[in-house]
Structure prediction request, 344 residues.
Amino acid sequence: MSDSIKYILPKDGNFYKANLHTHTTVSDGKLTPEEAKARFKSMGYSVVAFTDHELMVPHPELAEDDFLPLTGYEMSIDSELESPYKRTYHLNYYSPDPMRSASRTMAVTSVWNRDYMQAMITDEMRRLSTGKRVYSKEFIQSLIDFATEEGALMSYNHPVWSLQTKDDYSGLKGLFGVEWANSGCNIMGYFDTMQPIEDLNSEGERMCYPLAADDCHKDTEYGFSWVNIKSKSLEYGEIFEALRRGDFYSSTGPEILEAYVEGTDVVVTTSPAAGIFLATGNRQRQARRMHDEPLTKARFSIERMYEKLEFSPDKSKLWFRIDVLDEKGNFARTRAVFLDELGE
Prediction:
């Protein structure tokens, strides 16, 4: 492979702290959009995706030089109407257009039967509405495809709370990411994992990034899980494309200051850490653990990964990522990097 440096996180730009899953009084959140903005800004956030249920409401009035609202919404596709065993897909749609309020992924029949929400249904939403939603992987794929055609990004939210299994997500194509940390669900005891992301990465899905978000229905669910986006500016298009490229890491605590590949070495610099790990989709994971002092830098050789290429059934599906663990048990994670991105 080339000896040139390949950046996992961009060399240039600034980090912008972001929450990608937010509910307000537009649906079932406890804070108004203005109150949610103030809460996030007080905790150092620069970007918030407003993803209320079934309605996509732009919030240009919240934009400032140091704060960017992203436009989106959360959709639900349920296996049955009411049951404690109800399985459900929850997906977030992120719009590339800050003023978009309708999409082919929307279903007017799924807008909640609350007068103020019904009053927000537009003629454009009715025109584009998909009609009745169907709990099937084929229907979910059609929604992802619609979003992709519209230039949007689609995330797969809190699979554990949703009672989802591998049968529900294996084979899906084009997901932007999956939540491995969701504060609202964690508080209730529904702890998501990296397994769906690793499964999809190992199926060859490259834009299936690890996401961490608050979900924040209640005012006690703010500031626990986030992404740090590396971008040249806090401009809507720049931030959106940085998300599309995976120019961010997700975290529940630690910071990843830089991450790059130099020759056959992976180099990462972090905030004080108890462990820094090279995670892979096979048995070539590596670990650096603190001894007397916390770690702030690690170097891993991936030369053996190249040596073992001959044993891979599909070389295009070999990947690694960086995980960072702090002394409180919190993690930060980069996207997966596929070996063939790095050249020979």
User: Anything to note?
Assistant: The mean pLDDT is 95. The longest strand covers residues 68-78. Residues 30 and 218 are 5 Å apart (CA to CA). The radius of gyration is 20 Å.
